Amino acid sequence: MNCITRSTQSALSFMTYEVVEQVSNSTFNKFVVTYDAVSREIKWHRNIYWNVWSKNVKRRHTHIKSSQDEPLLKPRSKRFDNLVFYSRKIYEFASESEELTEILHRAFDNVMV
């Protein structure tokens, strides 16, 4: 299962994220998650009217190792593995404090825009 998150709004103590969860190759669930920093409450809403299935969606997370990988894909797979390895170290470090986590969230939001 893959999840893609994107910050959509930030106002006062509220942060709103759009989450797309890939259940299978052609099935997607979309949620809106709201975080209230004051009360530390997390609320999620699933809109049943959103289109959650589409065969035209470009898959972004297809870096599964296989013995049938083409030689041309090996450099990309190595880069992906290195990114996963280093990002885990970053996540472990940033999870130590709320301030570091917020800095990382802002950095991701700036990069993904």
Main attributes?
113 residues, alpha+beta, 2 helices, Protein FAR1-RELATED SEQUENCE
In short:
Helix content is 32%, strand content 30%.
Summarize the structure in words.
There is one protein chain. The protein has 113 residues and is α+β, with helices and mostly antiparallel strands. It folds into 2 domains: 52 residues, no CATH class; 44 residues. It has a 4-stranded antiparallel β-sheet. The radius of gyration is 17 Å and the shape is globular. About 9% of the residues have low confidence.
- Rg from Cα: 17 Å
Q: Within the largest sheet, what's the order of strands? A: 1-2-3-4
Q: What is the mean predicted local confidence, pLDDT?
A: 74
The SS-based structural class is: alpha+beta
Number of helices: 2
Overall number of strands: 4
Question: How do the SSEs run, as a string of H and E?
Answer: EEEEHH
Number of domains: 2
Structural topology:
Layout: E1 2-11, E2 14-22, E3 28-36, E4 41-46, H1 74-94, H2 98-112
Antiparallel strand pairs: 1-2, 2-3, 3-4
